[in-house]
Amino acid sequence: MNEKAAPVRALVLAGGGAKGSYHVGVYRALQQLGWVPDIITGASVGALNGVLFTMGKVQEAEDIWRTMELHDVLELPATTEKQDLYNFFMDVVRSGGLNVEPLGETIDRYIDEDAVRHSPIRFGLVMTELSTMRSIRCPIEDIPAGKLKDYMLASSACFPALRPREIDGVKYIDGGWRDNMPLDLAKDMGAEELLGVDIDGVGITRPNTTGLPTRIIRSHWNLGPTLDFDPQRAARNIALGYFDTLRLFGQCGGTAYAILPDTDGFLAHFADSYQRCLADACTRVPELALFERTARQRMNYPAPYAPNPSAPTRGALAPLELAAERVGVPADLPYTPKLLAATFMGSFDKDPADRFADLWDGKERAETVAERAIAATVPEEFVTALVSRTLGNLGLL
Q1: CA-based angle 106:108:113, to the nearest 5?
Q2: pTM of the predicted model over 0.85
Q3: Chain centre to alpha carbon of residue 380
Q4: What is the pLDDT of residues 5-27, one digit of tens each?
Q5: Alpha helices (runs of H) in the chain, residue ranges in sequence order
Protein backbone atom coordinates (compact mmCIF):
# COMPACT_ATOMS: atom_id res chain seq x y z
CA MET A 1 0.00 0.00 0.00
CA ASN A 2 1.36 3.40 -0.96
CA GLU A 3 1.75 5.90 1.85
CA LYS A 4 -0.16 9.13 1.42
CA ALA A 5 2.17 11.95 0.41
CA ALA A 6 2.63 14.73 2.94
CA PRO A 7 0.78 17.94 2.03
CA VAL A 8 2.76 20.77 0.47
CA ARG A 9 3.30 23.18 3.34
CA ALA A 10 3.61 26.96 3.04
CA LEU A 11 4.79 29.43 5.65
CA VAL A 12 3.27 32.87 5.03
CA LEU A 13 5.01 35.80 6.72
CA ALA A 14 3.05 39.05 7.10
CA GLY A 15 4.59 42.49 7.00
CA GLY A 16 5.00 44.76 10.00
CA GLY A 17 8.39 46.50 9.96
CA ALA A 18 10.31 46.15 13.21
CA LYS A 19 7.78 43.58 14.45
CA GLY A 20 9.36 41.15 11.98
CA SER A 21 11.75 39.96 14.68
CA TYR A 22 8.78 37.83 15.81
CA HIS A 23 9.17 35.73 12.63
CA VAL A 24 12.58 34.52 13.82
CA GLY A 25 11.15 33.04 17.01
CA VAL A 26 8.42 31.34 15.00
CA TYR A 27 10.93 29.75 12.64
CA ARG A 28 13.16 28.63 15.53
CA ALA A 29 10.20 26.79 17.04
CA LEU A 30 9.22 25.25 13.70
CA GLN A 31 12.77 23.92 13.33
CA GLN A 32 12.54 22.38 16.80
CA LEU A 33 9.18 20.82 15.92
CA GLY A 34 10.45 19.44 12.61
CA TRP A 35 7.87 21.45 10.65
CA VAL A 36 9.66 22.26 7.38
CA PRO A 37 7.91 24.47 4.81
CA ASP A 38 8.04 23.65 1.12
CA ILE A 39 7.09 27.23 0.25
CA ILE A 40 7.66 30.57 1.97
CA THR A 41 5.79 33.69 0.90
CA GLY A 42 6.00 37.13 2.44
CA ALA A 43 5.12 40.78 2.27
CA SER A 44 7.46 43.59 3.27
CA VAL A 45 9.60 42.44 6.21
CA GLY A 46 8.06 39.01 5.73
CA ALA A 47 9.74 38.88 2.34
CA LEU A 48 13.10 39.89 3.83
CA ASN A 49 12.95 37.27 6.58
CA GLY A 50 11.51 34.72 4.16
CA VAL A 51 14.52 34.97 1.87
CA LEU A 52 16.89 34.38 4.78
CA PHE A 53 14.87 31.37 5.95
CA THR A 54 14.76 30.02 2.40
CA MET A 55 18.57 30.13 2.33
CA GLY A 56 18.83 28.44 5.73
CA LYS A 57 20.30 31.59 7.29
CA VAL A 58 18.19 31.53 10.43
CA GLN A 59 21.09 32.30 12.75
CA GLU A 60 22.11 35.21 10.54
CA ALA A 61 18.53 36.50 10.64
CA GLU A 62 18.52 36.32 14.42
CA ASP A 63 21.90 38.06 14.64
CA ILE A 64 20.63 40.86 12.40
CA TRP A 65 17.53 41.42 14.49
CA ARG A 66 19.37 41.30 17.80
CA THR A 67 21.68 44.13 16.70
CA MET A 68 19.54 46.13 14.23
CA GLU A 69 18.72 49.76 14.94
CA LEU A 70 16.83 52.32 12.86
CA HIS A 71 19.94 53.71 11.16
CA ASP A 72 20.67 50.20 9.85
CA VAL A 73 17.42 50.37 7.86
CA LEU A 74 16.95 54.02 6.95
CA GLU A 75 19.29 56.84 5.95
CA LEU A 76 18.92 59.32 8.81
CA PRO A 77 20.78 62.53 9.63
CA ALA A 78 23.42 62.47 12.35
CA THR A 79 22.25 65.80 13.77
CA THR A 80 19.86 66.23 16.67
CA GLU A 81 19.29 69.97 16.09
CA LYS A 82 15.58 70.76 15.69
CA GLN A 83 16.01 72.97 12.62
CA ASP A 84 18.25 70.43 10.87
CA LEU A 85 15.77 67.63 11.61
CA TYR A 86 12.89 69.79 10.38
CA ASN A 87 14.74 70.49 7.13
CA PHE A 88 15.54 66.80 6.76
CA PHE A 89 11.94 65.66 7.14
CA MET A 90 10.71 68.40 4.82
CA ASP A 91 13.13 67.07 2.22
CA VAL A 92 11.78 63.57 2.88
CA VAL A 93 8.22 64.74 2.22
CA ARG A 94 9.24 66.57 -0.97
CA SER A 95 11.28 63.63 -2.26
CA GLY A 96 8.56 61.05 -1.60
CA GLY A 97 9.96 59.15 1.37
CA LEU A 98 13.05 58.06 3.27
CA ASN A 99 15.99 56.40 1.58
CA VAL A 100 16.42 52.70 2.45
CA GLU A 101 19.94 52.28 1.14
CA PRO A 102 21.20 50.95 4.50
CA LEU A 103 18.68 48.12 4.13
CA GLY A 104 19.92 47.56 0.59
CA GLU A 105 23.45 47.22 1.91
CA THR A 106 22.28 44.61 4.42
CA ILE A 107 20.65 42.67 1.58
CA ASP A 108 23.89 42.79 -0.38
CA ARG A 109 25.78 41.32 2.59
CA TYR A 110 23.44 38.45 3.34
CA ILE A 111 21.40 37.53 0.27
CA ASP A 112 22.71 35.12 -2.35
CA GLU A 113 20.17 35.19 -5.16
CA ASP A 114 21.50 32.01 -6.71
CA ALA A 115 21.09 30.18 -3.38
CA VAL A 116 17.50 31.38 -3.13
CA ARG A 117 16.70 30.14 -6.63
CA HIS A 118 18.19 26.71 -5.96
CA SER A 119 16.82 26.24 -2.44
CA PRO A 120 14.52 23.25 -1.82
CA ILE A 121 12.14 25.83 -0.29
CA ARG A 122 10.41 27.90 -2.98
CA PHE A 123 10.12 31.60 -2.28
CA GLY A 124 7.60 34.24 -3.32
CA LEU A 125 6.73 37.80 -2.39
CA VAL A 126 4.11 40.44 -3.09
CA MET A 127 4.51 44.11 -3.90
CA THR A 128 2.07 46.86 -4.90
CA GLU A 129 2.13 48.76 -8.18
CA LEU A 130 1.93 52.42 -7.16
CA SER A 131 0.03 53.79 -10.15
CA THR A 132 -2.78 51.23 -9.99
CA MET A 133 -2.49 49.99 -6.37
CA ARG A 134 -2.69 46.42 -7.72
CA SER A 135 -1.10 43.64 -5.72
CA ILE A 136 1.61 41.93 -7.76
CA ARG A 137 2.33 38.29 -6.87
CA CYS A 138 5.89 37.24 -7.58
CA PRO A 139 7.00 33.61 -7.24
CA ILE A 140 10.77 33.40 -7.47
CA GLU A 141 10.46 31.99 -10.99
CA ASP A 142 8.76 35.21 -12.13
CA ILE A 143 11.46 37.49 -10.73
CA PRO A 144 14.04 38.25 -13.45
CA ALA A 145 17.59 37.09 -12.76
CA GLY A 146 19.59 39.72 -10.92
CA LYS A 147 16.47 41.57 -9.76
CA LEU A 148 15.72 39.85 -6.43
CA LYS A 149 17.16 42.73 -4.37
CA ASP A 150 15.01 45.26 -6.25
CA TYR A 151 11.89 43.18 -5.70
CA MET A 152 12.66 42.76 -1.99
CA LEU A 153 13.15 46.51 -1.56
CA ALA A 154 9.96 47.17 -3.52
CA SER A 155 8.01 44.78 -1.29
CA SER A 156 9.40 46.63 1.75
CA ALA A 157 8.89 50.23 0.55
CA CYS A 158 6.29 51.37 3.10
CA PHE A 159 5.12 54.45 1.20
CA PRO A 160 4.82 57.35 2.01
CA ALA A 161 7.33 56.92 4.84
CA LEU A 162 9.73 55.13 2.45
CA ARG A 163 10.43 55.87 -1.18
CA PRO A 164 8.84 53.75 -3.91
CA ARG A 165 11.16 51.36 -5.71
CA GLU A 166 11.33 51.71 -9.47
CA ILE A 167 11.80 48.54 -11.53
CA ASP A 168 11.96 48.76 -15.31
CA GLY A 169 10.25 52.14 -15.27
CA VAL A 170 7.40 51.12 -12.94
CA LYS A 171 7.19 52.28 -9.32
CA TYR A 172 6.27 49.79 -6.62
CA ILE A 173 5.54 50.13 -2.91
CA ASP A 174 5.10 47.86 0.09
CA GLY A 175 3.32 44.61 -0.69
CA GLY A 176 1.41 44.88 2.56
CA TRP A 177 -0.63 47.80 1.32
CA ARG A 178 -2.80 45.41 -0.69
CA ASP A 179 -1.97 41.93 0.66
CA ASN A 180 -0.12 41.90 3.96
CA MET A 181 -0.36 38.12 4.43
CA PRO A 182 -0.06 36.56 0.95
CA LEU A 183 -1.95 33.32 1.49
CA ASP A 184 -3.29 33.34 -2.08
CA LEU A 185 0.24 33.53 -3.49
CA ALA A 186 1.17 30.44 -1.48
CA LYS A 187 -1.85 28.61 -2.90
CA ASP A 188 -0.91 29.74 -6.44
CA MET A 189 2.54 28.24 -5.86
CA GLY A 190 1.03 24.85 -5.03
CA ALA A 191 0.55 24.93 -1.25
CA GLU A 192 -1.92 22.48 0.26
CA GLU A 193 -1.54 23.53 3.90
CA LEU A 194 -0.93 27.08 5.20
CA LEU A 195 0.71 28.46 8.32
CA GLY A 196 0.43 32.24 8.52
CA VAL A 197 2.28 34.57 10.87
CA ASP A 198 0.35 37.77 11.58
CA ILE A 199 2.34 40.61 13.18
CA ASP A 200 -0.34 43.30 12.92
CA GLY A 201 1.30 45.33 10.16
CA VAL A 202 -0.18 48.26 8.30
CA GLY A 203 -2.09 47.66 5.08
CA ILE A 204 -4.70 45.08 4.18
CA THR A 205 -4.82 41.55 5.52
CA ARG A 206 -7.26 39.83 3.19
CA PRO A 207 -9.79 37.27 4.34
CA ASN A 208 -8.56 33.74 3.81
CA THR A 209 -10.50 32.47 0.80
CA THR A 210 -8.01 29.77 -0.21
CA GLY A 211 -10.12 26.91 1.14
CA LEU A 212 -6.92 25.28 2.41
CA PRO A 213 -6.27 24.02 5.96
CA THR A 214 -4.84 27.12 7.64
CA ARG A 215 -3.41 27.96 11.03
CA ILE A 216 -2.45 31.48 12.08
CA ILE A 217 0.17 32.43 14.66
CA ARG A 218 -0.28 35.83 16.27
CA SER A 219 0.77 37.31 19.58
CA HIS A 220 -1.41 38.26 22.50
CA TRP A 221 1.13 41.00 23.16
CA ASN A 222 1.83 44.33 21.46
CA LEU A 223 4.98 43.77 19.41
CA GLY A 224 5.84 47.47 19.31
CA PRO A 225 5.82 50.31 16.77
CA THR A 226 6.47 49.55 13.11
CA LEU A 227 9.70 51.56 12.97
CA ASP A 228 11.02 50.82 16.48
CA PHE A 229 14.12 48.86 15.49
CA ASP A 230 15.43 48.16 18.98
CA PRO A 231 17.58 45.11 19.88
CA GLN A 232 15.96 44.67 23.30
CA ARG A 233 12.45 44.69 21.87
CA ALA A 234 13.58 42.35 19.10
CA ALA A 235 14.89 39.83 21.63
CA ARG A 236 11.52 39.90 23.42
CA ASN A 237 9.61 39.44 20.17
CA ILE A 238 11.79 36.51 19.15
CA ALA A 239 10.96 34.79 22.44
CA LEU A 240 7.25 35.55 22.02
CA GLY A 241 7.23 34.11 18.50
CA TYR A 242 8.96 30.98 19.75
CA PHE A 243 6.53 30.35 22.60
CA ASP A 244 3.42 31.25 20.58
CA THR A 245 4.40 28.69 17.97
CA LEU A 246 5.00 25.99 20.56
CA ARG A 247 1.57 26.80 22.01
CA LEU A 248 -0.13 26.50 18.62
CA PHE A 249 1.40 23.04 18.22
CA GLY A 250 0.34 21.95 21.69
CA GLN A 251 3.79 22.01 23.29
CA CYS A 252 2.83 24.46 26.02
CA GLY A 253 -0.33 25.97 27.44
CA GLY A 254 -1.67 29.38 28.27
CA THR A 255 -3.07 32.31 26.34
CA ALA A 256 -0.44 35.01 26.83
CA TYR A 257 2.26 33.17 28.77
CA ALA A 258 4.05 29.94 27.90
CA ILE A 259 2.72 27.60 30.57
CA LEU A 260 4.64 24.41 31.27
CA PRO A 261 3.04 21.21 32.60
CA ASP A 262 1.41 21.51 36.01
CA THR A 263 3.21 18.60 37.61
CA ASP A 264 2.19 19.40 41.20
CA GLY A 265 -1.52 19.98 40.57
CA PHE A 266 -1.32 23.62 41.60
CA LEU A 267 -3.63 24.91 38.85
CA ALA A 268 -6.59 22.75 39.82
CA HIS A 269 -6.25 23.92 43.43
CA PHE A 270 -5.99 27.56 42.34
CA ALA A 271 -8.96 27.28 39.96
CA ASP A 272 -11.20 25.82 42.64
CA SER A 273 -10.14 28.38 45.25
CA TYR A 274 -10.50 31.28 42.82
CA GLN A 275 -14.04 30.22 41.94
CA ARG A 276 -14.98 29.96 45.61
CA CYS A 277 -13.58 33.45 46.29
CA LEU A 278 -15.51 34.86 43.35
CA ALA A 279 -18.71 33.10 44.39
CA ASP A 280 -18.34 34.39 47.94
CA ALA A 281 -17.94 37.98 46.72
CA CYS A 282 -20.90 37.54 44.37
CA THR A 283 -23.22 36.62 47.25
CA ARG A 284 -22.85 40.26 48.33
CA VAL A 285 -22.39 41.93 44.91
CA PRO A 286 -23.87 39.66 42.19
CA GLU A 287 -22.69 41.85 39.32
CA LEU A 288 -19.06 40.97 40.12
CA ALA A 289 -19.49 37.80 38.03
CA LEU A 290 -20.27 39.98 35.03
CA PHE A 291 -17.28 42.22 35.74
CA GLU A 292 -15.02 39.16 35.90
CA ARG A 293 -16.20 37.95 32.49
CA THR A 294 -15.88 41.45 31.06
CA ALA A 295 -12.25 41.69 32.21
CA ARG A 296 -11.36 38.46 30.42
CA GLN A 297 -13.06 39.55 27.23
CA ARG A 298 -11.49 43.00 27.22
CA MET A 299 -8.01 41.57 27.63
CA ASN A 300 -8.61 38.72 25.14
CA TYR A 301 -8.68 35.83 27.58
CA PRO A 302 -11.14 32.91 27.48
CA ALA A 303 -14.35 34.03 29.15
CA PRO A 304 -16.00 30.76 30.28
CA TYR A 305 -14.81 29.43 33.62
CA ALA A 306 -14.51 25.69 33.18
CA PRO A 307 -12.00 24.09 35.58
CA ASN A 308 -11.24 20.45 35.04
CA PRO A 309 -8.96 18.88 37.68
CA SER A 310 -7.72 16.23 35.24
CA ALA A 311 -6.99 18.65 32.39
CA PRO A 312 -7.23 22.31 33.48
CA THR A 313 -8.38 24.53 30.64
CA ARG A 314 -7.14 27.85 29.35
CA GLY A 315 -10.21 29.28 31.06
CA ALA A 316 -8.88 28.18 34.44
CA LEU A 317 -5.51 29.77 33.69
CA ALA A 318 -7.01 32.98 32.37
CA PRO A 319 -7.42 34.98 35.61
CA LEU A 320 -3.90 34.13 36.72
CA GLU A 321 -2.45 35.16 33.36
CA LEU A 322 -4.57 38.31 33.28
CA ALA A 323 -3.35 39.33 36.71
CA ALA A 324 0.27 38.59 35.78
CA GLU A 325 -0.08 40.74 32.67
CA ARG A 326 -1.66 43.52 34.70
CA VAL A 327 1.33 43.80 37.06
CA GLY A 328 3.93 43.43 34.31
CA VAL A 329 5.22 39.87 34.70
CA PRO A 330 7.59 39.33 31.73
CA ALA A 331 6.15 37.22 28.91
CA ASP A 332 9.39 36.10 27.30
CA LEU A 333 10.02 33.27 29.78
CA PRO A 334 8.19 29.97 30.37
CA TYR A 335 6.37 29.35 33.65
CA THR A 336 4.66 26.54 35.47
CA PRO A 337 1.32 27.74 36.88
CA LYS A 338 2.82 27.85 40.35
CA LEU A 339 5.88 29.80 39.21
CA LEU A 340 3.67 32.31 37.38
CA ALA A 341 1.62 32.76 40.55
CA ALA A 342 4.74 33.23 42.68
CA THR A 343 6.19 35.72 40.20
CA PHE A 344 2.90 37.62 40.20
CA MET A 345 2.88 37.84 43.99
CA GLY A 346 6.45 39.13 43.97
CA SER A 347 5.71 41.86 41.41
CA PHE A 348 4.02 44.43 43.63
CA ASP A 349 4.59 46.18 46.95
CA LYS A 350 0.99 47.12 47.73
CA ASP A 351 -1.41 44.18 47.62
CA PRO A 352 -4.08 44.76 44.91
CA ALA A 353 -6.60 42.95 47.14
CA ASP A 354 -6.46 45.80 49.65
CA ARG A 355 -8.21 48.04 47.13
CA PHE A 356 -11.43 46.04 47.48
CA ALA A 357 -11.49 45.32 51.22
CA ASP A 358 -15.21 46.03 51.60
CA LEU A 359 -16.16 43.66 48.80
CA TRP A 360 -14.40 40.83 50.59
CA ASP A 361 -15.81 41.30 54.10
CA GLY A 362 -19.28 42.50 53.11
CA LYS A 363 -19.21 45.58 55.32
CA GLU A 364 -21.08 48.61 54.08
CA ARG A 365 -19.00 51.75 54.34
CA ALA A 366 -18.70 54.95 52.37
CA GLU A 367 -15.88 53.34 50.41
CA THR A 368 -18.03 50.40 49.30
CA VAL A 369 -19.73 52.35 46.54
CA ALA A 370 -16.34 53.49 45.25
CA GLU A 371 -15.02 49.92 45.23
CA ARG A 372 -18.00 48.73 43.22
CA ALA A 373 -17.53 51.60 40.78
CA ILE A 374 -13.86 50.71 40.30
CA ALA A 375 -14.73 47.04 39.74
CA ALA A 376 -17.29 48.05 37.12
CA THR A 377 -15.08 50.62 35.38
CA VAL A 378 -11.77 48.74 35.53
CA PRO A 379 -12.77 45.09 35.93
CA GLU A 380 -9.17 44.01 35.24
CA GLU A 381 -8.23 45.59 38.58
CA PHE A 382 -10.89 43.55 40.32
CA VAL A 383 -9.69 40.28 38.76
CA THR A 384 -6.09 41.12 39.71
CA ALA A 385 -7.20 41.74 43.27
CA LEU A 386 -9.23 38.53 43.31
CA VAL A 387 -6.22 36.51 42.15
CA SER A 388 -4.06 38.08 44.84
CA ARG A 389 -6.66 37.34 47.51
CA THR A 390 -6.97 33.75 46.29
CA LEU A 391 -3.23 33.18 46.40
CA GLY A 392 -2.43 35.16 49.55
CA ASN A 393 -5.35 34.62 51.88
CA LEU A 394 -5.78 30.95 51.05
CA GLY A 395 -2.08 30.18 51.37
CA LEU A 396 -1.70 28.59 47.95
CA LEU A 397 1.99 29.46 47.71
Answers
A1: 125
A2: yes
A3: 22
A4: 889 999 999 999 999 999 999 99
A5: 21-33, 45-54, 58-67, 82-95, 101-110, 113-117, 148-155, 176-179, 183-188, 231-248, 266-284, 288-298, 314-326, 337-345, 357-361, 366-377, 379-393
